[in-house]
Design a protein that fits this description.
Order of helices and strands: EHEEHEE
Number of strands: 5
Structural class: alpha+beta
Oligomer: single chain
Strand order of the largest sheet: 4-1-3-2-5
Helix content: 10-25%
Distance between the termini: 34 Å
Mean pLDDT: 97
Number of helices: 2
Largest sheet: 5 strands, mixed
């Protein structure tokens, strides 16, 4: 059993044009997570989060709310392979 976890996340609602990616990067780095976040063509936001189990859980909790202007409708989480995680956190274009 490991104390680290990786997840892929898809967030829908009013999540583009409201600083969701920048907010995610800031919060993920604050929590010591690695991964990435990007806008999708369907107006959703996708992310890969990896790090300590507790930090990933906290980030997922925060993502249901998002930044002030966001209106999150749904957060879908699926497990991911830790080997797919990069060494830092970035916003992908």
């Amino acid at each position: 059993m490991t104390d680290r976890r990786a997840v892929k996340v898809r967030i829908t609602g009013q999540v583009q044009g409201v600083y969701y990616r920048g907010w995610t990067e800031s919060e993920a780095k604050r929590l010591g997570l690695v991964g990435w976040v990007r806008n999708e063509l369907d107006r959703s936001v996708s992310a890969l989060l990896a790090g300590p189990v507790g930090a990933v859980a906290e980030m997922l909790r925060l993502m249901h709310r998002g930044p002030t202007e966001a209106r999150v409708e749904k957060v879908v989480v699926e497990e991911a392979d830790l080997a797919d995680a990069p060494r830092s956190f970035s916003v992908r274009r």
